[in-house]
Write a structure and sequence with these properties.
The chain has 214 residues and is an alpha+beta fold. The chain folds into 2 domains: 77 residues, Glutaredoxin; 113 residues, Glutathione S-transferase Yfyf (Class Pi), Chain A, domain 2 (Up-down Bundle), CATH 1.20.1050.10. Strand 3 and strand 4 form a beta hairpin. Bound molecules: glutathione. Glutathione (GSH) binds next to helix 1. Belongs to the GST superfamily. It comes from Dyella kyungheensis. InterPro entries: Glutathione-S-Trfase_C-like, Glutathione-S-Trfase_C_sf, Glutathione_S-Trfase, Glutathione_S-Trfase_N, GST_C, Thioredoxin-like_sf.
Length: 214
Amino acid sequence: MQIYWIKAQAPRRVLALVKHLGIEAQCIELDLMGGGLKTPAYTALNPNRKAPTLVHGDTVLWESSAIMAYLCIKHGSDMWPARDPAEQVEVLRWLSWNDQHWASAVAPFYFEHVVKATFHIGEPDEAEMTAVMPDLKKFAAVLNQHLEGRPFVACHRLTIADFQLASMACEWRRSQMPLGDYPNVVRWLDGLMQLPAWADPWPAAAAKKEGALA
Ligand SMILES: N[C@@H](CCC(=O)N[C@@H](CS)C(=O)NCC(=O)O)C(=O)O
């Protein structure tokens, strides 16, 4: 099994799951700034030219939520509740909510403070964050209310929904996301950081460059 990744939030979910579940996989870092996502070989795997991508035998999969579900099914983990329709619907609700609402509200904070610093592509632009502030507050309030009395986002246990929702927000202090008014969100995000695989999902340096695609 190969997993192609860059040091960014969508691959972070998949790499954290791989580490958390102890899955054997060859994790191959792509050189984003050197055009590693635009090579013909990688484009053939993922025509979106995004990361992550999973290759497992004849299976080629992109979209981190689908990859996480696939890994859980293969590994027999109920972090994707494959055998319980009601739980599946519950997790699916939060995966969708993330992709439709939460992600776009937190993305500018994450991009301006974390992505730009990681890839050395400039200084944070405050205007980008100001523009999404109303949405951030609206959706943080929704999540905060939902997390009242709940340790995790869905099914009263850790699921892939937690990794989906937390991947851009987990570094909320560094990203200067104003989440201090949402104590349940802070408790949940900081609680996830107690998981070693979530706190440090990145593969060891020695494993990174093997298998690069021309
Ligand atoms: N919805 C996709 C998002 C994939 C995505 O946007 N990946 C980003 C990193 S978080 C990427 O590859 N960016 C590189 C680029 O756009 O050039 C998923 O969940 O896998």
